[in-house]
Specification:
Layout: H1 22-36, E1 38-46, E2 53-60, E3 63-71, H2 85-92, E4 108-113, H3 118-126, H4 132-141, E5 147-150, E6 157-160
Helix pairs in contact: 1-3
């Protein structure tokens, strides 16, 4: 069962939850069975209600925790970044090179289980993601990133947000 804070809008997975149709009841049962086959899961998550913080997801058996690890590099002031190029390059390995606006924020969770139905687990997790409309609203309210990375330069340059590219 995913905590409500992690799964806004996700279907209820509680035992005996009221369902509106037989299809929903079957889907809830399928979801519950899929999650019961998960033995361990762990990784990094980005929560919309804590946009600056990187969180560590850890689950084993009946134990689950979600702990703040600190802030994402993209939200860290440039003055707090590593100074040596190899260290900077290591940080940049986790950065989004597409539009680049999310930096190193991401969902990166590994699931280990017996007879794990990957498609069902992915469907459940996808239902927890913001919709396009919710993401647009999130972007309107989100604090600006502390840094911008210019991946067009070689090596990539990390700039304070708002600074012009070299």
């Amino acid at each position: 069962e995913l905590p409500e804070a992690l799964a806004p809008g996700a279907m209820a997975l509680e035992e005996g939850a009221a369902c509106k149709s037989e299809d929903q009841e079957a889907a809830a049962g399928k979801s519950k069975n899929a999650l019961h086959s998960v033995i361990r899961s762990k990784g990094f998550v980005w929560l919309a209600n804590y946009p600056q913080s990187a969180h560590y997801w850890s689950h084993a058996g009946h134990y689950f925790s979600l702990e703040s690890l600190g802030i994402w590099w993209v939200t860290t002031a440039l003055s707090e970044w590593p100074k040596q190029r190899p260290d900077i390059n290591k940080v940049l390995e986790d950065f989004d090179r597409g539009e680049g606006r999310f930096g190193d924020r991401r969902q990166e969770i590994v699931f280990i289980g017996i007879d794990l139905d990957q498609d069902v687990v992915e469907e459940l997790l996808d239902a927890c993601l913001l919709s396009d409309a919710e993401m647009q609203e999130y972007l309107k309210r989100a604090k600006p990133n502390a840094v911008h990375v210019d991946f067009t330069s070689d090596p990539p340059q990390v700039l304070a947000a708002g600074a012009p590219s070299a």
